[in-house]
Amino acid sequence: MSKQKPENRAEKIKQQSFDKLVTLGNKIYKQLQEEKYPEFDMPSRTSSNIYYDEKTRQFSLGKKKIRRSSRNVRHLKPFLQTMFVAMFAARDLLEPGRTSTLRDLYYSSESAMAKMFKNQSESDNIITDVESIIGMAREDFNIFPDARSTIYGDLTISFKDKKTGNKREINLTFNPDGQTIGPTMVRSDFVKTSAKKVICIESGGMFQRLIEEDADEKFDAILVHLAGQAPRGTRRIIRRLNEEMGLPVYAFVDGDPWGIHIYNVIAAGSASAAHLSGLTTPDAVWMGLTATDITRYELPTDQFTKGDTTRTVQLLRDPRYQKPYLQEELKKFLKLKRKAEQQSLTSKSLTFVVDEYLPAKFKEIEKLQKAGKI
Amino acid sequence: MSKVEFKQLSPADFFYRNRELAGFDTPTKSLYTAFREILENSLDGAEIGGINPDIFIVIKKKSEDVYTIFISDNGIGIPGKKVPNALAKLLFGGKYVERQSRGHFGLGASMTVLYSQITTNLPTRVLSCTRGSDEIDEYHLMINIQRNEPIIRYHAKLPNKKKWHGVTVEVNIEGDYGRAHPKILEYIKATAMVAPYANITFIDAYGTLYKFNKVIDEVPKLGEPVLPHPRGVDTEKMLRLLRVARQRSMNKFLQNNFQRIGEITAKNFLKFVDIKPDKDPQKLEHDEIVRIVQGMNSFEDFLSPETKCLSPIGENVLTKGIMKELEPDFVTAITRRPQAYSGHPFVIEIAFAYGGKTIERSSEPNLFRFANRIPLLYDQYADVSAKVIRTFNWRMYKVPDNAQLAIITHVASTKVPYRTAGKESISDREEIEREVRLAMQVCARKLRVYLSRIDREHRQAIRTSIFEKYVPYIARFATRLSGKKTIPSTDFVVGGGEAKTEDQKVNSGVK
Question: Pick from A120, A144, A168: which residue ends a domain?
Fold first, then answer.
């Protein structure tokens, strides 16, 4: 690992992860030298230790810990696997400056020891264990998922050029199809922006439409394509835009329980990431499609399935969904028993969404915020 | 009206007409039975003299369907003059005594000679020499069936140059060797299992040699002859006893002809059946005899039967024999205390053998049955041991469904309680079944302890090998992760860690 002082945000994060991993290694090493069966503690991620924190407005872990001991024959293999992932992350990824996907890590493990992991999901779980031990997300120790989404808008970022080592700046409007959100961008420094808000869009079709209609200029927005459930890198960027640049975030998703859920993962996080912070944007607003939108604009709809109804009832009870306007709309959905894709707005006209829908929406939200309903 | 002639039937004639009662029903079984009878006599002949049996068996094909069985032993031998009657006359042994024995006092050998004669019309060749004798008697014998008398076709005396003693029998039998061979071999192997003090050499009709060597010297003591027990006496037996009795009072008659009847018991019994103690036994009326017999079967105060007439194999001998023949990983044997049924004493001995290379894995235990040291190879299903095994709760003793388990059962008695005449399954009378079940429970408990132990050891071995496999990797990874240069030694792991049952949850503050 470079001995120079970290120059930028990315460097800082990498150094932090690296140090924490090496600390873990030292701890285990010392125990072995003392001829003790090594062990370490990590926070428990069982449901009894996960709770919704009102203050941080996300799912968090409680105080319970689990001790993983190499003396216990049932812990032995996971212990070994954890040590491998930590070693791999620190020495094979962070130190030489490489990234790896989940799959890469699984295959790399084979060369270290045959059949170390039964399957990839076993290795995924161990990566989560390492996250919870050092308290940093896997992207911070250079393990990135395959899934990526796209961003478009007037935001200038800077990062260290891989080849020259010099600082490089790019503006995120340079690629008319949108720029993929990858490891470099997630850790890059934000230089400047003229945008005043962030709009997160669920479907590719709608994202494309908004770019074509210059929605970024019309609304002074940075457009983020979620591509379904937002990948962690994307969620991180959204939070950073909200936190560092002070930009309000709006979620524009399909009018169904699944779309609402996508919004909520952005806003309040998921149980599986309860051990991490920095992934949620609690102030994000759910824009639509709402049940009210569907009826108001007489959009073409589909029938609620039994699953949709069950899901909606569950959401009504979820601690993350208690805001008045959310509750109202959920109840309306239950009564309506119909759902609609965001792209159904096209039934009005191709440009309806930018001409009529979005402007009306922003006004409506402002009103609701003033009334304190959001 | 046609005349029906009645002729008197000699014993030989009776068995000639009813040979299946003695085990000569089919050509296969007959060959097997002939072989058995002679071998059993040879074993008895040695054991009676406390001699480690040294038996030499050859079976050779003589002609189509006719086989010569040649068996030679080193027993006490039969005195020369007595040989013809012993092997060519169907008779029962002399005095009315009871003692456990394999054979029926030579009856079986005579049956064999009889069957040989019927099927091949050839004489049986016999050599015999008693201990210390200079001369060997050689006879070629046949039986006059109608008169039940031996026919001596040839007799000679040979010099005993090698100081041999024992009996050699060479008999020709018509039979199905192909089918009989597996049973014959099974019989010899089973015999070797309960007689590890015997050397047995066997050359079969295909020319293969089998050798069973003794592993112990101790020859089990045979049972001592004892007087009969009053229980189980019937009218006929009583009449026979009276006929030869010399006592002049019922009191003395009882004390001298039955086991364990003393002055007081005799007096109490006679009072019970309302007969005067000084009544002359020869002057008993028929109804008095009947009353006495009925009384003998109902009187409650007789002592339980003597057991010194019995000769169990013994736990040590059983164990050694089983280890030799089956080579199991584990064996346990138990000889129960003697019990009685209807006045006949009996002892149950049971052994369990588990694991090893030769015992077959099966859903049912391999059962080896013995009665008076004789292997029982037929009629297994109806046997009391098979019944107890079927109804036994194996799961409770941790015996897996497909186990390598062999069970050896031995019933020793002065009168083995077979279910039916001519069959080889032992009756499931209450007294017998109870003893068999209790004995099996004792063995099963020991087996369970053993199975728990190997299970624990097995799991421990797996655990140890897991630790020895994984901890070095942990050390390697931790070293590289920490950036240190040398990998710490993980030798302290040999021996394995512990199996914890739960993660230790630590309620500590945030680290």
Answer: A144
